[in-house]
Amino acid sequence: xxxxxxxxxxxxxxxxxxxxxxxxxxxxxxxxxxxxxxxxxxxxxxxxxxxxxxxxxxxxxxxxxxxxxxxxxxxxxxxxxxxxxxxxxxxxxxxxxxxxxxxxxxxxxxxxxxxxxxxxxxxxxxxxxxxxxxxxxxxxxxxxxxxxxxxxxxxxxxxxxxxxxxxxxxxxxxxxxxxxxxxxxxxxxxxxxxxxxxxxxxxxxxxxxxxxxxxxxxxxxxxxxxxxxxxxxxxxxxxxxxxxxxxxxxx
Length: 251
What we know:
Elements: H1 17-24, H2 44-56, H3 70-75, H4 79-88, H5 106-118, H6 139-142, H7 149-153, H8 159-170, H9 177-184, H10 186-189, H11 201-208, H12 211-221, H13 236-249
Helix pairs in contact: 2-5, 4-5, 9-13, 12-13
Protein name: Cytochrome c domain-containing protein
Organism: Darwinula stevensoni
GO molecular function: electron transfer activity; heme binding; iron ion binding
């Protein structure tokens, strides 16, 4: 029994794996780039294989096929015209071949055009690579500070003066808990007061089991007959210093 293979326009060549892959390949592909990364331009061959081969590798939709005489007349139009057609689109070809400026720059599209022309018997020069913009000078950080008149006329401070100023700036006044207790708390925490007497360890023993934070909160919020902070008008930190002093006297 004899069998006959179906005829194809170009014989077995059209049945090769690479030709089949080209025919079923999507018209466009997506590629993600880091917008903050260094600029690395694709070669004409890379752009062609990633974005152009589906039509220009097969002649689909009337596109001039690479390697054929289709490019002879087109190459005669010149690089600028071919690039404009590529960017704006022409006949069945969409703008930029269906890609976007984020996919390929005008320069990269131009490279692809040159690649297709030169691989179809033409001799077109490579486009000039765009000049990378130099980073803007940081005028604020590079500028030489100009002292004002007062600073320029003031004598330089001695090391001793610098240390004295630094110590004055960072110095934090110490809160004297003892003074606060003696001036504001003794009416209740004195010998005849309703509260636990300062220095009476037995009276403070059960209260100390609350811990430092527990004592602070009881005093700040008030407890039993004692109003918040015992009626003390100072800051919370000053009140805590008073508590610390009374605790120190009960240990």
